[in-house]
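Interim report, section 4.2 (structural modelling).
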Amino acid sequence: VQASLLSVAIWHFLTPELFAKKCNKSDGTFSPAELVKHLNGQFVSSDTDQYFTMFCAVVDPKNDELVFCQAGCPSPLQLRKDMPPTSIGDGGYPVGLFPDADFEDHKTTLNASDRLLLFSDGAPEATNPQGIQFGESRLMIELEQHRNKELETLPDALCQALQTWRQGEQLEDDLTLIALERKS
Amino acid sequence: MIKASQQDTGTYVVQPKSTRLTAENVGAFRESVFELIDGGASSLAIDLSGVEFIDSTALGALVGVLKKVGNRGEIGICGLKGNAAQMFKLTRMDQVFTCFDATSDAVQSMGSNA
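Predicted structure of the assembly:
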């Protein structure tokens, strides 16, 4: 129940206006970390251990870059033309645990037709009957194998791969999968 | 849910009895550790060397323990491995908690600070 209430609170709080106000800097650059820092200040509490994780990013088409702040969530995977999948970001504090947590902006090249896969920990941590986790490397394989197929079908394909891995057993954790592609 | 023993230095070594610390069982873990703290324990070395897997709820519970002790004492995390070590690194908790390879290192170091 608490997690549901928290997600509703974030949903109401995080408006497009707030996103633009905090991420757009006066010099024309972007800082998603500023928004994450702001959210951390709003949701931090000294007497609870409730928190949330997020990946906050802005596409900078002028510089062909993705500017992002990773806050406690698994590192997303990136699929660029003629390159094997890579994971981006090396972690960061979750939101709402510590008032003084420092959040950082990072950049990666993002050209037209490049893809990103964002996922919750339920994907890599899904175990098969032998207790082996699906892991990041199998997500990378799925992403690569799906390279020339429609992006829209990627989440379903991943769900199917996870189901097969689980041999029909339900996932133990909730699951979020977001597949993105820069069109132009 | 936990096995706790006080060392000569005063530090309590706390071991979860499960190899998985998740939303399913971490409530009982948190409650047991909170009871220890309420009973006066202020130096705790939490031994996770036998824990194969921790999830995000368990991570929150460990932070809850850290916050409960606050400035009155100290928490050490020992024997992180595999998924738990990755989780600590990913969320920067390896910079928030004082982490030790072995429980004996924690007891020695924390005891000398007491």
